[in-house]
Amino acid sequence: MTSIDFSGRNPGFDPTNFGLDQYDLFISYCRRNIAFVRRLHRALTVQHQTVWVDWNDIPPTTDWRTEIQRGIDRADNFIFVLTPESLASKVCLEELNHAISRGKRLIPIVQTDVTGDVPDAIAKLNWIFFRDGDDFDTALDRLLVALRSDLDYVRMHTRLLNRAKEWQLADRDGSFLLRGKQLQSAVRWLEQPMAPLSDPGPSGVYPGQPERGPTSPGVRAAQPFGGQNRDRC
Asked: Residue 49, Cβ neighbours under 10 Å: how many?
């Protein structure tokens, strides 16, 4: 189950909006930390952020894999709630790997101090601390600054990624190629220098562009979502 709040949004006509559902962020978390995630979700929606978050277990069918991956693909940012439980969760790490493979902007937030190994992709980033002893509102302000940085660049990354997926699923049908103002916008985006915050560079294949691999530093191949039962821990 996902939760979406589009309050405050009135984009009007935008040649870079390719008619896709899109979210400001995806939250990856362990179920044991759900009380904190609910509080964070409420605070973000008050700030008119659109959030993809899984509140209930998705039935144990192949559909949950598609739903989770689609949620990550259509989110501009990937929030990883760092706790000992999330680092031990196979599902959370699979979500992280999928986000990495898609070149998503990763924003780690710490709800509980962690020890031991932390995946390289988030260990090297600046963490935002939401621990019990930290000021929640101050941490939220820092998170919002990160989410809103290089916004146009990151949103275009998400839109092009999903158009590319549709093109590939359609066996690269020419009718799915970008044209006119959409193609012009995509070309301008590809010519931009990488955004300085976390460099979500071009990933995969873009319709109308040559094939190219992930360019973000530290990108690793996504691991398959395994098993029949999805246990978020």
From this structure: 21
- Residues of the chain with pLDDT below 50 are 1-19, 57, 167, 176, 179, 195-229
Instruction: Summarize pLDDT for 174-207 with one digit per residue, the tens.
Output: 554 554 565 555 555 555 665 443 443 333 333 3
- Please give the order of strands across the beta sheet that includes 128-129: 51-52, 23-28, 75-82, 105-110, 128-129
Whole-number Å distance between alpha carbons of 186 and 216:
18
- Selecting from 3.10.105.10, 3.40.50.10140, 1.10.600.10, 3.90.25.10, what CATH number does the domain 1-6+19-233 have? 3.40.50.10140
Taken in order 6, 24, 17, 177, the sign of the CA dihedral is negative
What residue type is assigned to position 214 of the chain?
A: P
The domains of the chain are located at: 1-6+19-233
pTM of the model: 0.64
With a CB cutoff of 8 Å and minimum separation 6, the contacts of 230 are 57, 58, 60, 64, 91
Strand partners, 77: 25, 105
Helices (H) and strands (E) in the chain, counts: 8, 5
